[in-house]
Design goal:
The protein is built from 12 helices and 21 strands. The chain is globular, with a radius of gyration of 25 Å.
């Protein structure tokens, strides 16, 4: 097998290079073949229990029933989270990653969010609504150059938010000259199963004090007042309605909305899905990267693309190393990842999967090369944005959102 090194990335990043690098890994339930998994859940027509996404997929030449265990967007989010954690940990290279950070102050605590965590990356509404030294971000020349970047010259975007180029971004709210950058890295986890009718699973809560805690109007109001700073607005409304129901005649109501009392076993929530095969796949599109230029000439542009590819592979190695999805969906690798590079005309070059150490070395080498031939500089945060206080003041959590 061939090692993934800088020379290979530079070749693939130059005209005539292969289209895609692909990584495919067989997974299995950590509990064994008999264990079910909890696929990704999606909201459907107001059903708060959610639903699983079933599709027909080809497997070994035949059409089979499949369920989305982890979606394409979720897999990219996990890659971003892995990079963000490395930044927080002070990784010697990734801590230097250019990024845009918005800062809020909430209840006396400073919160920071960057293009690694905001859903629309460098074009996110939290960034656009903020200010720098009292000036709206959208009026700052350095941010305008990022928004004006095009595939003909994306240097400003590379220098400010390289993750927006590998994970995709869309400046959708702009009246014109909208930046639309498709993700160069895509991936998903798919499970092959028997049917599209999930079972339901039981749930219960035992309260050692009592299976029921009945409260009157006065007690409900006092409990709500004591916890007001911690209760969501929706939950406060529920308590107020319950107190109104209990008002008059010495009535009492259940305190379950405040987490008091038990819940009898019920079969209501979506159950797990039994899968006979689970496959994780990722594709890094060099064809996508080759559509982008950076004003650095043929050699310099290839170096910039190779740097983006190394960053994407580093994020992928970090994400794959943490098979953490959600409750009741613990997976493990059933075999080593199968990695190859398309060499055109049906030829595939078998590659050795990157370890974290290999991925870090590859990224450091790609950065040093891009610094030398394209003048790339990674110095950490490029723009520090002050978040609009009206936004954080209006932020609420939906206490009833399904898990």
């Amino acid at each position: 097998m061939t090692e993934i090194d800088l020379a290979l990335l530079l070749e693939a990043s130059s005209p005539g290079g292969g289209s895609c690098l692909t990584s495919v890994t067989e997974l299995e339930p950590a509990g064994g073949a008999h264990a079910s998994v909890a696929p990704a859940k999606f909201a459907v027509d107001g059903d708060r229990k959610g639903a699983y996404a079933y599709e027909k997929r080809y497997l070994d030449g035949t059409v089979q029933q499949a369920v989305i265990v982890d979606s394409k967007q979720s897999q990219l989010n996990r890659c971003e989270a892995a990079l963000q954690q490395a930044v927080v940990d002070g990784h010697p290279v990734l801590a230097r990653l250019p990024r845009v950070v918005v800062r809020y102050s909430r209840n006396g605590v400073v919160e920071e969010y960057s293009d690694l965590s905001l859903p629309h990356r460098v074009f996110d509404g939290h960034i656009r609504a903020g200010t720098i030294a009292g000036v709206p971000v959208t009026q700052m020349p350095e941010y305008r150059t990022v928004r004006d970047a095009t595939p003909a010259n994306a240097r400003a975007l590379l220098d400010a938010s390289p993750v927006s180029l590998i994970f995709g971004s869309w400046d959708s709210s702009r009246a014109n000259r909208q930046g639309r950058w498709r993700s160069a890295l895509v991936g998903e986890i798919v499970g092959f199963c028997a049917d599209t009718v999930p079972a339901v699973r039981g749930g219960a809560r035992v309260d050692p004090v009592g299976m029921q805690v009945l409260l009157g109007e006065k007690a409900l109001k006092e409990l709500a007042a004591d916890q007001r700073a911690e209760l969501s607005s929706g939950l406060q409304d529920k308590v107020a309605k319950a107190a109104k129901t209990a008002a008059g005649g010495g009535k009492t109501v259940s305190g379950s909305m405040l987490g008091l009392g038990g819940i009898p076993p019920t079969l209501e929530a979506l159950g797990g899905v039994a899968c006979h095969r689970i496959i994780r796949s990722h594709v890094l599109s060099f064809a996508t990267l080759r559509q982008i230029r950076f004003g650095a000439g043929i050699e310099g542009d290839a170096a910039c693309r190779a740097l983006l590819a190394a960053l994407a592979l580093n994020a992928l190695a970090r994400s794959d190393a943490e098979l953490y999805l959600r409750a009741n969906c613990d997976l493990r690798e059933a075999s080593a990842a199968v990695v190859d590079l398309d060499r055109r005309s049906g030829e595939r070059l078998a590659l050795t999967a990157l370890s974290l150490t290999d991925a870090d070395s590859l990224l450091a080498g790609a950065l040093a090369h891009a610094e030398r031939v394209a003048g790339v500089r990674w110095d950490g945060v490029v723009l520090q944005v002050a978040g609009n206080p009206a936004i954080v003041a209006g932020a609420v959590e939906d206490a009833d959102e399904p898990s």
